[in-house]
Design brief:
Jelly Rolls, mainly beta, RmlC_Cupin_sf, six-stranded antiparallel β-sheet, 1% helix, seven-stranded antiparallel β-sheet, 270 residues, RmlC-like_jellyroll
Length: 270
Amino acid sequence: MSKLLVKANKGHGRVAHVTPRSAGWTYVGFDLHRLKPGETASGQTVDREVCLVFVTGKGKVMAGGKDLGLLGQRMSPFEGKPWSVYVPEGSDWSVSADTDLELAVCSAPGLGGGLPVRVIAPDDLGQEVRGKGTNTRYVTNILPEGKPADSLLVVEVITPGGHTSSYPPHKHDRDNLPDESYLEETYYHRLNPPQGFAFQRVYTDADGNGARALDEAMAIEDGDVVLVPEGYHPCAACHGYDLYYLNVMAGPKRTWKFHNAPEHEWLMKA
């Protein structure tokens, strides 16, 4: 199995755990909790900031000493927009499940920005359609660079069955602004119906002999997490199975500037 593929376990509690140390990088962390009613997930941000994303379900939230009440609404990631909570560094948080709950804990370094805890409601989220034809996908911006945070960028995307996404292939692995930013990235994948599968390739440019430093093609199943430390990272959803993914990105500068694969850039104009 590829070292870039993290298989969430099928139980409940914390079922996926990615840290900068386990991923071999510097910035992005990602945990996934699946909770039964009455179960609780909690944490301390210490020197990191966190975005709690209610992928599905409802729960009671405490963060930074504040009772934020009952949050969450949708029971499928393929319906509507999520509730989320931004938690700055130096804060405690806890979520107690009111229903079956799938909670994503997205983290990155705090930079002393002094930001407050805040609830990010579905009505606060912008949505957009990207691409056309069989490259159409539907994007919900949870924590984009135009909204306050120190390091985190968080977005979710739904790709209809038979469509491609994160395509034409692009990368963001060089700190070379204004042309390209360095951002580590995780993909948390869900499929509808859940017995389906999709594909994701993570690869770097070829050298003069056609060799690539990284080239991993993975079959993605429901609940998988993919690590993108560098390179291009397109996805393909198979016919009959819609693909959802939650992206977490962070790097030394909080901006998303990507570089398209030159050999496929003609698709942007087609």
